[in-house]
Amino acid sequence: MPELYLRLLDRVLTPILFVVAIFLFLRGHNAPGGGFIAGLVAAAAFELQILSEGDDVVRARIGRNLHPLAGIGLLCAASAALLGLLKGTFFQSVWYFGTLGALHIEQGTPVLFDLGVFLVVVSVMTTFLLGLSKRDEEPQR
After folding, report:
1. Cα dihedral angle (74, 80, 81, 85), rounded to 10 degrees?
2. Using CB atoms within 10 A of its CB, is residue 90 exposed (0-12), middle (13-18) or buried (19+)?
3. For the whole model, what pTM was predicted?
4. Which of 29-38, 52-61, 92-101, 115-124 has the highest mean pLDDT?
5. Which pLDDT score, from 0 to 100, does residue 42 have?
6. What is the mean pLDDT of residues 27-56?
7. Is 120 in a helix, a strand, or coil?
8. Burial letters 40-66, b for 16+ CB under 10 A, else e
């Protein structure tokens, strides 16, 4: 059974880690940050949940979604690379500029690529951490 302080840390730090991951993701190409480091921070939040609640609970909650999430991430990253062909070369940035009310929106393929990297890193690292925390069924002799 996990210790009380781990459950308390989980309740306090997990939302903070996810907010930091979102901040690092959105900061992306304009400053240090991006999909890779944001994915590592989000995986650290899942590791804290594994330590506080146990691997069976986390595996039941998100385990079946990890492999499809990695596939979706690879699809996002590959489509960001292929969308550059619309401008003539592979991996060329394609940007969308628009307005939504008073809000000015600039979105491009670098954000789509970062999203793909984020999804792949979160799913691979969480699968790895769940594999490390799995217990043997019978003890070794």
Report:
1. 140
2. exposed
3. 0.84
4. 115-124
5. 96
6. 87
7. helix
8. ebbbbbbbbbbbbeebeebbeebeeeb
